[in-house]
Amino acid sequence: MMNIADKDVYILAIESSCDETAAAVVRNGREVLSNVIASQIDLHTLYGGVVPEIASRKHIEKINQVIEAALKESAMPLEEMTAIAVTYGPGLVGALLVGVAEAKAIAYGAGKPLVGVHHIEGHVSANFIDHPDLEPPFICLIVSGGHTHLVVVKDYGEFEILGRTRDDAAGEAFDKVARAVGLGYPGGPKIDKTAREGDPKAIRFPRAKVEGAPYDFSFSGLKSAVLNYLNHARMMGEEVSVPDLAASFQYAVVDVLVSHTVEAAKVLGYDKVAMAGGVASNSALREEMRRACKRTGLALYYPSPILCTDNGAMIGAAGYYEYQKGIRSGWDLNAVPNLKLGER
Ligand code: KG4
Ligand code: ZN
Fold first, then answer.
1. How many beta carbons lie within 10 A of that of residue 221, not counting itself?
2. What is the arithmetic mean of pLDDT over 128-147?
3. Does 278 sit in the ligand 1 pocket, CB within 6 Å?
4. I want to staple 122 with a disulfide (CB 3.0 to 4.6 A). Which of 5, 276, 318, 319 is the partner?
């Protein structure tokens, strides 16, 4: 007879799409037994951004150690894993390939099923880990270094895209503005911190709206406005308050992210809102979204900061739901750098 423990699903998850080499063991999609992340941030800081070739090489150096550490910390042997999940896109092709090749080798060698996971579905699924009661459907704002999407999560792994960025991603805008004012890489957390000392109403920057597309975003105009402001001040020999500039820029981004999200929930009749991706750990975004959701009677969910930025646990959560749906990848699984949301 099968006991309860036999029915548990253990996913060993691997993530290497950008600059974190990460692995995790997740039980039944929501319980994290280990979550090991080797960040390359210090290395890329030297160059002011992620250098793809260096990222791939570092992943190769680290991946075995990270996976071993994840298994060790979970106190579960590889044989006990139900399936191996891996991010296969979107991301940097060379970086993704390291994780995909590794996952295939482990799954083949251990005789386990392989489940390819969409990186953005991973970000969304981080919410399931921190909120055991959260179930679809809900509205989700996905804001990372490479992506800005407003979606309806209709079911696990089922998305309806309401809006997206027309140009830069929200995180990219943070990174570019941070670089322009000399705060360095990665810009998001640095702007977040500096903005706390500044006045968000000091400079009025344009809002990142797109005419006729109520749920789309555009951050390139805002970025140009910040650069113009800086150039103008430099030409006039005026002192720029970096905290005021950071706070005003951040407020312009947050204002649009919050208003689009709350509007979508109200118009489409959803009572739950979630956030995902690196920028979802921004303190001003969290605070403004909390305030707006409270005012409009919406329940708000977001992951703890460590689960907002890239990690293996979120891939384990998404991988679990894909596995439960019967999704299996073949040994020909390849990295898909521009994999679209909702595509398999
Ligand atoms: O989700 P993520 O780790 O990687 C991608 O899939 O892109 O997101 C990284 C992005 C970077 O652009 C980083 O600057 C931004 O998230 N970020 C933040 C904060 N923490 C990370 N942006 C604003 N405020 C933060 N506190
Ligand atoms: Zn990410």
1. 17
2. 96
3. yes
4. 318
